[in-house]
Specification:
Blueprint: E1 19-23, H1 27-38, E2 42-47, E3 58-61, H2 63-71, H3 75-81, E4 83-84, E5 87-91, E6 97-102, E7 114-117, H4 118-131, E8 135-138, E9 142-147, E10 151-155, E11 160-163, E12 165-168, H5 175-180, E13 188-199, E14 211-216, E15 221-226, E16 233-240, H6 253-264, H7 271-276, E17 280-288, E18 300-302, H8 317-334, H9 338-367, H10 371-389
Amino acid sequence: MVSRRPSPVRVRLGDVLEHVVVSGGGIAGTALALALRTAGIAVTVVEARPADHGEGAVVRLNPNAMDALRAVHAHQPVIARSFPLVRTERINPDGSRMGYSLGADPSSQRGLPRVMHWPVLASVLREQALERGAVFRHGSRVVDAEVGAKTALSLADGSRVGGDVLVGADGANSMVRGKIDPDGPEPERLGTRTVYGYASEPGCEPPPPEVMRSYVGAKAFFAATRDSHSGGCFWFTSLRAPVPRGEDQPQDPDALRAEMGELFAGDATIAPTVIGNSERVLSFDDHALPSVPRWHTDRAIIIGDALHVAPPASEQGAAMALEDGVQLARCLRDHPTPAAALAAFERMRRDRVEAVVAAGRMGTSRAHHRPLARRLRTLSTKTKRHFTWQRTPPMGGGWAYDHHIDWPESTA
């Protein structure tokens, strides 16, 4: 069966909306551009990085993320460039399996989580947005933003890009957020740091295809999965990091590789070998932005990490960005004025995104339990496995995965 692109549904009768300008061409901004073009609304995305910058970590797209892509018929190219995650396993230092969980309900039509490299996801979304008529201005640094009765971005080259609505999809350190609410909160540093890596030739046998394994080490866990397309190995770990990494400090893969090699030295797992063979290693301090009091003005709004920074433990950062983009496009399509559309978006999204960030913070805390707490959790896991898991395998997801977007349905 051929998947047909949804037809634009424009029912707005009031203030004419002809053009949206987006600051930031990451996942949220690009998803919004794709969805706006699907709704028949012109859009220009301004992004400082080049289109082929290639920077980014591994991304997990849970079923709610794939649902958002299906809403605008953008899922098939993502499926083609990603691989499914059937289950996750927790491995003891002696190599025995402590526990496991399925990636999602295998009987559900919503499908399994997908895994891919962040730049590949960004490229796939951008290609589809361009095909539908979106305009991207890469290599254009934003130096100022107007968020009042008139909305526009001022660029470093002296030019301006104006629109009927301005969307700040400009990340955790959002300039647009500061313009909308100068006294608003900034992302809170959690005291942890996530390190990601990739080894095209891992030098050992990585986990089986479609499996994520988390190896318990003496000092930290080491999670790894095999790229079903290339045979390489994506991996990540989380560290306590009381001293923040400088925002302008460049990534030093050699130094990070040496630091990780020392951290996992002596562990009888694949970690030391995979790390030593990794050509890509990068780290990010973990932050959370639990709640932003003011999301928008009458003609400007923030989405994605500019609005809700979810810790990596939530496994929902990319999904929330995709949901934001598609849902905001629906609201702009359906409501008679930009002000009404932006207010509707906030009503639709606030409770959900704040709950996701809160859940992610709890996950980050659990990942850094002290040794006694870890032993108690291991005992609890073994007990559950003995009494219940043979009857009902544990599955990821729950309420976060169950979110559904009905593209044709009006939000008005």
